[in-house]
Amino acid sequence: MESPISSEEGITPDFTRDSSFFQVAPKEPKLKLCCYNMPNQAVINKKAEVVDLSIIIVNYNVKYHLGESLQSIYGNRKGISFEIIVVDNDSTDGSVDMVKSRFTEVRLIENCQNLGFARAVNQGLIESKGRYLLLLNPDTVVLPGALDKMVEFMDENPRAGALGCKLLNADGSLQPSCRSFPTLRGAFFENIGLERLFPGNRVIGQYRMGYWGHNCVREVDQPMGANLMLRSAAISQVGLMDEQFYMYYEEVDWCYRIKKEGWKIYFTPYAEMIHYGGKSTRQAVRNMLIERYRSMHKFYRKHFGLIPEILLKCMNFVGLVLKILFGATIVGVSLFGRNRKGEYWEYRRQILRDRWWVLVRNWRLWV
Fold this sequence. Notes:
- By secondary structure, the protein is an alpha/beta fold.
- The chain folds into 2 domains: 7-177 and 214-280, Spore Coat Polysaccharide Biosynthesis Protein SpsA, Chain A; 305-365.
- It contains 11 helices and 15 strands.
- It has helices at 63-75, 95-102, 117-127, 146-156, 184-191, 194-197, 232-238, 250-260, 285-303, 306-334, 343-360; strands at 12-13, 30-33, 44-45, 51-59, 82-88, 107-111, 130-136, 140-142, 160-168, 174-175, 178-179, 218-219, 222-223, 227-231, 264-275.
- Helix 1 (63-75) links the parallel strand 4 and strand 5 (82-88).
- Helix 1 runs parallel beside helix 2 (95-102), helix 5 packs parallel to helix 10 (306-334) and helix 10 (306-334) packs antiparallel against helix 11.
- The longest helix has 29 residues, at 306-334.
């Protein structure tokens, strides 16, 4: 497959949109958008100014981590040219004012409501002008040389449509960041608990890839969307993110479409970033649990059909019941221990309450 774009030509995609959907001052560096309809197709156009990398960050009420992330990007700039586009989903914690006052080079898109991750990313894509695009969570810290190494990798591998890098927890330990594409077999093993018992088994643990140490360059199916670099040519071919996914599985769907068009997706351990994880979604844990299930079901319906989606819903329901029973047993045993009021046990009890909340409202996933 020939790439629709050659990076040497200096061409970068311009994603077309109906201007009636936006309220934008065209020449202002700060954009105020209230978007309710976004296009689903990307087209190619020439732009006068092209950069190596467009970094798109979707923010929702994580002011401190956003500032830390932006500072790490500017503090580790090397040979590449880049732009940063922050799409704020109606934060109320002062994130917007912080960006305006401390990072004047950032292009800021302010939404008047929380549009979800996919729609916000699409807004950033439309305004981008990079040969490559990087989706970056606001709760990440870019380590020295990471961006340069990722751009260099993409330059050296023209058939690479997407690339993920090595993610670390705050304590420096490995954060597994790649998975295989979802399958009914993988969902079965996960819902009955076998995947957690035998994560290193290449059959049972295939989905989460627990048998692999993230220590070498290799092709993968889906790197975590917290840090995902994409070739603009690939996006121009497969289109923008599917906005039916409000939260979760939007990057899985994207990677699935990219691979389907013949592009390769890689992981490199030579570029590293710290990812704190879940700083936005923890603000509404229960609703996010519902949304995760809903997005999973949409993915199966879109790519595999109605019957696999129904089978998945049944397996997820059984799996949720089993998790609640197991969690209730563990919490019940803890009542006889000395540290039953400790922080860990409170955490376990909260997980149990959250899962019960989802179970009671499981009917929402069937309508």
